[in-house]
Amino acid sequence: MSRIVVDADRCVGHGRCYTLAPDVFDADDVGHCVVLTEEVSDESELQAKIGEQNCPEQAISLTH
Ligand code: SF4
């Protein structure tokens, strides 16, 4: 199981993460990323990785 962390100082609200991986990420009122579950289940691991790889600001990190 992985843990996911979003650096709020880097997130500028492109929305790629919650568009591509809605099981793991959501948006707050201004479009910045909210992590739905910090501990990523095996089923959501692929979505978490997709979000991590597609964030232009490199705000998302996954730890194992
Ligand atoms: S893709 Fe990155 S910058 Fe964009 S909302 Fe998600 S975490 Fe923030």
Please explain how this structure is put together.
One of its GO terms (molecular function) is iron ion binding. Strands 4-1-5 form a three-stranded antiparallel sheet, with helices on one face. The protein has a two-stranded antiparallel ribbon with strand order 2-3. It starts with a strand and ends with a strand. The mean pLDDT is 95. It has helices at 16-20, 45-54; strands at 2-6, 25-27, 33-35, 39-40, 60-63. 23% of the residues lie in helices and 27% in strands. The protein has 64 residues and is α+β, with helices and mostly antiparallel strands. It binds iron/sulfur cluster (SF4). Iron/sulfur cluster is lined by residues 6, 11-17, 32-33, 55, 57, 59-60. The site of iron/sulfur cluster has 14 residues, from helix 1.
